[in-house]
Amino acid sequence: MAIMLGTILINQAIIQYFLFDKKNDSHLIDIGGKQRMLSQRIDQLSFRNVVLQKDNHDQLTSTLNTWKTAQLAIMNGNEDLKISKITNKDTYSKLNSGLKIINNIDSIIRKGNLNDASLTLINKNVDEFLPLMENIVNDLTKITDKKLSNIIIIEIILALLTIIIIFVEFQLIIKPSYNKILSQNNRLREIAWKQSHELRKPIATILGISNAIQNNASMSTKEKNKCLSYLFKATEELDQVTHEIVNKTS
């Protein structure tokens, strides 16, 4: 029973850990998707700055900082964003390539005085970042799916283990106990049947002698003493049988 309880507790612990990990992965994928949106936002703001002559340098810088901070958070983890560090080396390498692109755009924007050449460079870097980030999000999704497959396999193994434990406990504990109780019941039934027949004999003798004494008023003293002697023997026999029943059932 303790083993089965331990298996159930382990099962629940694994499920809770997976749910926590799944929440972290989902948040990570969500931030990864937003990175693509931020890159396009940088592209749009740069276009407005150069082509439409919009003075939005502060907005560009703020968006760029958010973009870069999120990229670093995905790579190294971030407690405020509640995401864990990327441990897959291939995915981390791709994220690092994305960070280099962000740094390239950062250096262009921070120089100020954006022009057509700057806009072309920003567009080129964003065009490189988008498919790269798409690939990273796909990697993160595959990692999550693999974790799900692993947890399903573990759940199946634990379920089979629980069934095996229940079967073993039934065979080694429950079944022998049941058979023992059944055997005791059968033994008690046999004793009851046998003793009931043994009890009938002295009881019948006692009843017969009592009836003879009661119905025969003219019985002599000798006959009465003889009947009382039989009655005493029958009583002793009854006491002995009763004593045996108590001993056999205790």
UniProtKB/TrEMBL annotation:
One of its GO terms (molecular function) is phosphorelay sensor kinase activity. SUPFAM superfamilies: Homodimeric domain of signal transducing histidine kinase. Keywords: Membrane, Transmembrane, Transmembrane helix. The chain crosses the membrane at residues 151-174. The keyword Membrane applies. It comes from Tenacibaculum caenipelagi. This is PilJ/NarX-like methyl-accepting chemotaxis transducer. InterPro entries: HisK_dim/P_sf.
